[in-house]
Amino acid sequence: MKDFVAAGGGFYALHNCSHVSLSSKNYREVMGGAYIGHPPLRPFRVHAVNAEHPITRGIPDFMVNDEQHYVTYDKDPKYVLLEAENIDGLEYENYGRNR
Q: pTM of this prediction?
């Protein structure tokens, strides 16, 4: 997969598939980081980090009600387009404690 992507092939990763990055160096290099967890469903704010990028230009901050996935990002931060803000202080380690 790493060679395929490096040669210009497309790869669209869904949900928390970046969890594979914790056990595969090649996969992590393609993903640029790894999934480290998420708290339960709840609202959180998303904002454009690079508001001048063609993909994010003109997008205002918005709220999402979902599982906020936390990731470790290994690449240059200049490539980050959107960032989710943890507004309630709930850490991903709390997930599942009260299920």
A: 0.73
